Write a sequence for this structure.
C-alpha cells in the first residue's frame, strides 16, 4: 500500500480534528439513530494531543490525509496507549486502519504492551482490534464496573471495552 505515515504538523491539526470527529460521529450515528450530540468533542482530542508522552501521526495517500492516530508513549515502562485511531470517511475497508496500526508498531518496536479502549457499540472496532490487530479484550466497563476515567455523560460512556496487546 502506498501510504506515508508522518508526524502530524501544526498546520494539519484543524483538518485532522474535523476528519477524526466526522469518522467517530458517523460510526456512532449508525448505532444511535438521530444522535444529536458530538461524540468526540474537540476538547477530548486536545486532551490526547497535549498529554504527557503524546505523539500524533497522519496517514497520507496521494497527498491527502486519509487517517491518523494519537498515541501516548511511556518511555520508562514501554506500556503504551493508543488513544485515538481513525480512518477518514469514504476510505474505510481498504486496509488503511491496519496499515496505520502496523506503522505504529514499527515506530515503537520497544513497546511491551499496547492498550486501547472502544465503546460497546463499535462492533467494527471490536472486530478490528481483536481479529485484525491481535488485541485481547481484558475488561468491560459498565454500570457495575465503571471506569473512573470515562465521563458518565459520554455517548455509550457506561459501556466500554479495554483491550491489551502484549508484544512478543
Amino acid at each position: 500500500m502506498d501510504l506515508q505515515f508522518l508526524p502530524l504538523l501544526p498546520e494539519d491539526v484543524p483538518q485532522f480534528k474535523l476528519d477524526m470527529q466526522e469518522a467517530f460521529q458517523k460510526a456512532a450515528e449508525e448505532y444511535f439513530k438521530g444522535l444529536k450530540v458530538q461524540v468526540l468533542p474537540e476538547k477530548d482530542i486536545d486532551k490526547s494531543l497535549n498529554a504527557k508522552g503524546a505523539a500524533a501521526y497522519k496517514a497520507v495517500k496521494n497527498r491527502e490525509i486519509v487517517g491518523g492516530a494519537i498515541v501516548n508513549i511511556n518511555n520508562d515502562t514501554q506500556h503504551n496507549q493508543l488513544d485515538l485511531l481513525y480512518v477518514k470517511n469514504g476510505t474505510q475497508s481498504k486496509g488503511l486502519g491496519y496499515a496505520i496500526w502496523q506503522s505504529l508498531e514499527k515506530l515503537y518496536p520497544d513497546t511491551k504492551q499496547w492498550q486501547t479502549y472502544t465503546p460497546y457499540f463499535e462492533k467494527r472496532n471490536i472486530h478490528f482490534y481483536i481479529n485484525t490487530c491481535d488485541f485481547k479484550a481484558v475488561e468491560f466497563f459498565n454500570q457495575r464496573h465503571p471506569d473512573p476515567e470515562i465521563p458518565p455523560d459520554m455517548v455509550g460512556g457506561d459501556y466500554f471495552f479495554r483491550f491489551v496487546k502484549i508484544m512478543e
The longest helix spans residues 13-31.
